[in-house]
Amino acid sequence: MENLILAAYILPSVLLGGILLGMRLFRGSMSPGILAGFSLGHGLWHLGLSLWVLLVLPLPHYFMESRYLFVDQLGIFQVLIASVVFILAALYSRGYVSHLLSNKELDIENLPVFYIGFNLLLSVITFAFFSNNLALFWLFLELSTLFSALLIATLNARDNLVAALKYIFIASTAMIFAFIGLIILFSLTRQAGSPGTLNWDELASLAPLLSPSVLGLSALLILTGLLAKSGLVPLHNWLPAAYAKAPSVVTALMSATVLNIGIVGILRLSALLRQSQIGETFSNVLVGFGILSIGVAAFSMLSRRNLKKLVGFSSIEHMGIMLLAIGIGTPLAVFWMLFHTLAHSLVKSGLFFSAGIIRRQYGSDRFDRIFDIFRLQPVAAWGVIMGSAAIVGLPMFPVFLSELNILIQLGGVSVWLVLMVLFFLLLVASSFAIFLLKAFTRSEKNTDRPVFRTPLSMKLPIYIIMAGVVFLGVCQPQMLADFLNQIVKGLGF
Amino acid sequence: MLENIPLNDILKILLVLVLVTSSLVLWQRSLTSLFKTYALQSLLVALVAMVFFINDGHLTLLFIALLTLFGKVFLIPRILNRILLQMNIRRDLEFRFLYPVSSLIVSILLIFGVYQVFSNLMGEVMPDRLFFLGAVIGVSMALMGMMVIFSRKKMLTKIVGYLSMENGAILFGLFVAELPFILEILVLIDLVILVLLVTVLAFGIDSTIEDFHPRFTPLGEWFKKK
Amino acid sequence: MSWNLVLYGFINTALALLVSPLFISLIKKVKAYAQGRVGPPILQTYYQLYKLFKKERVYSYQTSFIIRLTPYLSLAFMMVASLSVPLVFIPAADPGLGNIILFLYLMVMSRFFMALSGLDAGSSFGGMGSSREMTLSAIIEPVIIIVFGALAYVLQTTSLFDMFGQVRENSFLSNPSLILTGISLFIILIVETSRIPVDNPETHLELTMIHEAMTLEYSGPDLALIELSHALKQTLLMGVLLNIVAPWGLASEPAAGGIAVAFLAFVIKGSLLAVGVGIFESLMAKFRLFRVPGLFMLAFFFSFITVIFKFLA
Questions:
Q1: Domain residues of chain C, as ranges?
Q2: Among C82, C72, C62, which Cα is nearest to C114's?
Q3: CA Rg, chain C, in Å?
Q4: Which of B16, B122, B128, B129 to mutate: most C Cβ within 10 Å?
Q5: What is the DSSP letter of A72?
Q6: What is the value of ipTM here, to two decimals?
Q7: Which helix (H) or strand (E) holds A61?
Q8: Per-residue pLDDT of chain B (226 residues; tens, 9 = 90+)
Q9: Chain B residues touching A120 at Cβ < 8 A
C-alpha cells in the first residue's frame, strides 16, 4: 500500500514524459500554456499528497524491506517547501516561457525538454529527501545536478552551455569524492559488526562504535560533495554563472530547492557525527566553512553589477549562515536553521521572479540597463525591494528572526565570531542597498521604451510570496514551531 | 590476500596496468587514442571485478564486471566516437594549466600524499597490503582524473577525465567494499545519462564550426541525426 | 682470471656482435612491410658491413685525430659494455663487472666521442647533430639513472649479474612492478637507439637528423665500425630489457647444451622485441623536439610508481 505513495509521487512526471514522447512520435506539439498548466497541476498534486502524508501517516515511515526510502518530518517539511515553490514557479513559467519563445531565446523544439526537466527535477528532489540510504541520496543528488544543468542549457546561448558544463563538472567531481567517502563509511559499518549499511537510522545507532579518525575522513569526503551541491565555498564557483545565465524560473527553483538538498544532507551528516567522538571537530569544521562562505560572499557582492549574480552570492551567504547554524549544534540553532530554509526559499524565489520580470523588460540584468523602473514595472521593483529587505534581514521579515537567533547561539561559542559575521552581514546589506540605489533611481529622457506587459501569471507568485513572507515574519504559527521542534528532537540535537 | 596466490599476482599486474592507462589519459593528445585508452582502462577494471568474482563467488561482482564491460568498454566509447565524428577536431592541442610533464610530476606527489594519508588512517579498515594497494591506486586515479578535468580545455577530454575518476572510485569500491547490486546499476545509469548530456552540450562548445546558432538539439533529434 | 670469465667474455661479445645486424635488418623489414613495401632482405646489414669494409676511407682536410680514433673507440666501449650484460649465461664473476651505472656510462662515453667527432669536420650539419644529441642526452640521463635506480631498489642490487640471477628465479609474475620498469626500459631503448618517435633513423634530410647527422663524415670501414657499434648498443639495451622482463632461457652456468638453448632463446626473444620495436615505430610519427621530454617523463613516472609498489606490496 505504501509503495503506492511512491508511485503516486512519480506518476505525473512519467505521465508527462509519456505524453510528450507520444507527441514527438506523432508530430504533435503542445503550447506552453498547457505545459505550464500541467506543471501547475503536478505541483498541486504533489502538495496535496505531501500534506496527506504529513497528516495521515505516522512518521517516520519506512518503505520496502530494504528501508532505502523513508518519510520523516524533516523530509516531508522540505518536500512541502519544494512543492510550494514549484507551484509558484510553474505558475510563473506560463508567462515567462511564452515570452522566451516569442523572443526566440528558446527554441520551440526545446520546449518539451524544458518541461520534462522541470517536472522531473521536482520528482528527483522529492526522492532525494525521501532517501534513507546514503547511496540512493547520492544518486538523486547527481540526478538533480543533471536535470538542473539540462534546464540551464535549454537556452540557445554559448554562455549557458559553458555555465551548465561548469556546474556539472564541479558538482559531479565533488560527488565522486563523496562516493569514495560513502564506500569508506560502508566498510566501516561492516567492521563494526553489521552486514554493512548506509541507511541514516542504522548509521545513527552505529556511529559511536565507528573508529573516529576514519569516520572523520569519510565524513570530510562526503562533506566535499555536499558543499559543492549547496554552493558553499570553496566549491561555489559554478553558482554565480549558472544563476545569471539560467532562465529566472529555473534559477528560482534551483536556489529554493536544490541547494536545500545539500544543506539538509549536511544536517543529517552532522546529526550522525554528533553521536561519535569526532563530532566536536566536525562541528568546528562546519563553523569554519560557514563563516568562510559568508565572508567570501559578502566581499564578492560589493562589486556586483548583475542583479542575478548579486542574488546568487546572497544564496551562498545564506547557505553559509545555515552551515554555521548546523556547526553550532545547539537545539535552538538547528530550529532556526530549519526555519531559515523555509524563509530563504520563499524570499529567494520571490527575488528571482522579480529579477525575471526585469530581465524580460530590459533584456539584461545589469544595473546600468535599468531605467524608470517604477513607471515601467512597479511590481517587479517592489518585489526586488521587499525581497532585498527580507533577504538582508530586516525585521518584519522572517530572515531577521532566524539570523538573530543564530547569531545569539553563535555568541555562546565566541563573541569575536559574532562580530565578524555581523560585519559580513553589514557588507551584504550595503551591497544590496548600493545596487538598488544605482539601479532604481535612474531615469532616461527617452520615454518610448516598449513596456513588457507582465501577465498576471507572473505577478501573482510575487504577490503570494510577499504576503506569505510578511505573514511569516510577523506571526509564526505555533504549529510550525511544534513541527520544527519535533524535527530537531528527531535528529538528536 | 586472496586464497589463490596466482590470483594475487594477476591482481597486482592488473593494478599496474590500470595505473599505466591512467597516466596515459593524462598524457595523451589525440582524442581517438584517448578513448581507446579509456576503453582499455575500463576493461582492466572489469577484469579486476572478474578476478574478485572468481575468488569470492558473489554474483554482484560478476554483474559489475559484465556491466562495466558492456557499458564502459563498448557503449560509452562508441558514443564518444560518434560525437567526435560530428565535430571537426581530432587532437586536443591546448593544455590550459598543466602540461604533461608537470601533470605527471603532480601525480607523483598526489600518489605519495594519498599513500601517506591512507597509511596513517586506514590501518584498521584495511586488513592487508593488497587491498591497501588497490585503495591507494583507486583514489590516485580519481585525483589524476580530476587533474585532467582542470588542466584541459576541450570538453571531450574533460569527460574522459571524469570517466577515469569514476573508474578510480569503482576500483576503490571493489577493493574496500562493494555496495549492493541495485545501487551499482543505478550508478552506472547515472553515468550514462551524464555522458550523454555532456556530450550533447559539448557539441556546442568544442565544435569549430563558426556558425553557432542554434547549437542545442534536443535529445530525441540527436539520436535520429547521424 | 677464471676460465669461466674468459669464456663468458668471448661468447657474450661474439654473440652480441653476431646478432646485432640481424636485429637492425629485422626492424627495417617490419617497417617496410608496414609501409607496404617488401624491404631489404634480412641479411642485408651483414652485406652492407662487408661492402663497407672493402671500401676506402676518405677524411676531410680539416679533421683531427678524433675522427680517426672515434670509430675504434666507440666500438671498443660498446664491446666492453657488452661484458656487463649477460646474454646467454651469467658468469661467476665479481658483480662489480655488471654494475648498471658502469654500463650506462660506458655507453655515454661512446656517445661523447661520437658527438666530438661530429664537430670535428667543422660542417654545420655535424655540429647541429652533436648539439641535438647532447641536448637529448642531457635530458634523458637523469631519467635513465632514476629508472636504473628504481630497478636496483626493487631487486636490491646494482649489478646486472645479480639482477638477472634474481629474476630468473621468479619472473615478473611475482614482481609485477617489473612490468612498469619494462615499459620504462622500452622507452629508454627507443631514445638511446634514436628511433621514431625521437629521431628518424632512415631520414636523408639533414635538418631532421639527430643521431645520423654526426655520422655524415664517415666512410668505408669507419662507417662500418660506427654502424656496428650502434647496432651493438641496441642489442645490449634489448638484452637488458629482455632479461629483466622475460628471463626464460638464461643459463646460469656454461654448459654446452644450456648455452645453445640460451642462444636460441635470446635470438627468438630479440627478434620478437625487434618486431615489436618496428611495429611501435610504424604506429607513430616523429615527435616535435619539445615534446620528447614528455616521453621521458612517462618513463620517470613509471619508475617512481615501481618504487611505490615496492613500498605498498
A1: 3-312
A2: C72
A3: 19
A4: B16
A5: -
A6: 0.85
A7: strand A61-63
A8: 455 667 777 888 888 899 999 999 988 877 888 899 999 999 999 999 888 888 877 777 788 788 888 888 888 888 888 877 777 655 555 545 557 788 888 888 998 888 888 887 766 666 677 788 888 899 999 999 998 888 887 778 888 899 999 889 888 888 887 666 666 777 777 777 777 777 777 766 655 433 333 444 444 444 544 4
A9: none
